[in-house]
Amino acid sequence: MAGRILKGGCFCGETTYTINVPETLPLLEGTTNHSPTCVIDHCNTCRRTSGSFFHAWIIVPEPWITIISHPKEGEDSKLVRFESSPHVRRSFCGRCGTHLFYEKEDRWAKISGIEEKVHLVDATIGSLDEESLAQVDLVKPSMHTWRKDGISWVKDMFDSEDGKESFGGLRKHDAGGW
Ligand SMILES: [Zn+2]
């Protein structure tokens, strides 16, 4: 069955990626969420590594994502991975600095339609191409995570009447539990 392809990459184009989303969005078993799940993550590590208020992530089963490096002739891939906390790896482009991926070693999920448990990978929503960002039903966050760590006036902004209207009153989680 035909699905949809989301495309993204770093600012300089050294690393690009595609996310192949099946036509029927599978359910993450044990939750009420369909995959892909999109979140606004307020945790301190996301704030620091983004250099902004929060990271916004699209969380997908690893088999859906293809990461491609386009190194200059004679150079290696510039994708830099580092351990931001035990068993957590974040990746960014070593040339232009765009943050791209988050992987947690022990984060596996069962999704409908795939027999084996799958590893989940997060990609930064902001690194998606404009055409992919326009696919609102796939890429618009549905919840806040680690809200307890969030900057108070940023949370106030989301809670304001304007914020509620434009973001549709996203679900709130004090920690990562979704
Ligand atoms: Zn780059």
UniProtKB/TrEMBL annotation:
The keyword Coiled coil does not apply. Residues 6-147 form the CENP-V/GFA domain. The keyword Lipid metabolism does not apply. PROSITE patterns: CENP_V_GFA (PS51891). Keywords: Lyase, Metal-binding, Zinc. One of its GO terms (molecular function) is carbon-sulfur lyase activity. Belongs to the Gfa family. This is CENP-V/GFA domain-containing protein.
